[in-house]
């Protein structure tokens, strides 16, 4: 059944050319998103590799850039190795870029002609930069590989964690305030030589994803204290430990931020062909000259994902979302936060052809 539907839709590609123009109203309403770490799984992207020449070329380019068959780690490696942040980051970026290459191949359109904004969660911001042609694929992969390695080295010997806090009501401001208060309490205790805490102990708000979800990063003892303090409030919430290889977006990664800055200073960025919403500000990046400092700041700072979605929906008028990459996690966030939004997944060949069908329908209107 699936192959018959794919064959039927695939016939559309023969009449869909680079001269195809979508109605401006659809392009103006659409944004493209990419996920971050935690979205990885063994075998992700293999369907794209097997069914689209352009996607296969992306994987091959990454293999060549890294100097070994990195695609084998993605397709058939072990999960522990893939989750290692040094591997997870380039793997997730590769799959996101491959999905867009596949869509461009069968539609005959450039992605810049299909969306008006793009953004990525955490390392997904690098995917957005590559797809917007501000950053080359080779440079992007080298950067995120180094980013992952530097992050791993930053927490060597430190017992750390990253935990999501999910509420049923809009109480994230109280959670953020409580977490910040806990960290202040810990830092004051360390200054006063309180033996209860290690000199590395800290807890930071890593991401504000939705009006009902934030994540905390830091040392296990500090994060656990933050959760304990929250339990003493009247807030109703649940927690989930995230399957990631480091406590992202916290001050434990300051050494990684310094290493990344050196690499970014040696990297060339071009003007963006698609406007990008920055994690650090939740607002559009004004110029490619700002990208390096934003990426450095993003490493240890809160990802303002909720602000990013709010800007796109409330200010830019975005109601349609393409969610590319290995996982539908971003689409889930958007549906919960902006219920009337229309989301289209770009995770496998079925999604790609379904999206093509929608684009063809819109072109004919």
UniProtKB/TrEMBL annotation:
SUPFAM superfamilies: FabD/lysophospholipase-like (SSF52151), Probable ACP-binding domain of malonyl-CoA ACP transacylase (SSF55048). The keyword Acyltransferase applies. InterPro entries: Ac_transferase_dom_sf, Acyl_transferase_dom, Acyl_Trfase/lysoPLipase, Mal-CoA-ACP_Trans/PKS_FabD, Malonyl_transacylase_ACP-bd. It catalyses: holo-[ACP] + malonyl-CoA = malonyl-[ACP] + CoA. Keywords: Acyltransferase, Transferase. The keyword Transferase applies. Its EC number is 2.3.1.39. One of its GO terms (cellular component) is mitochondrion. GO terms for molecular function: [acyl-carrier-protein] S-malonyltransferase activity. GO terms for biological process: fatty acid biosynthetic process. Residues 33-363 form the Malonyl-CoA:ACP transacylase (MAT) domain. It comes from the Eukaryota. This is [acyl-carrier-protein] S-malonyltransferase. It comes from Smittium culicis. The lineage of its organism: Eukaryota, Fungi, Fungi incertae sedis, Zoopagomycota, Kickxellomycotina.
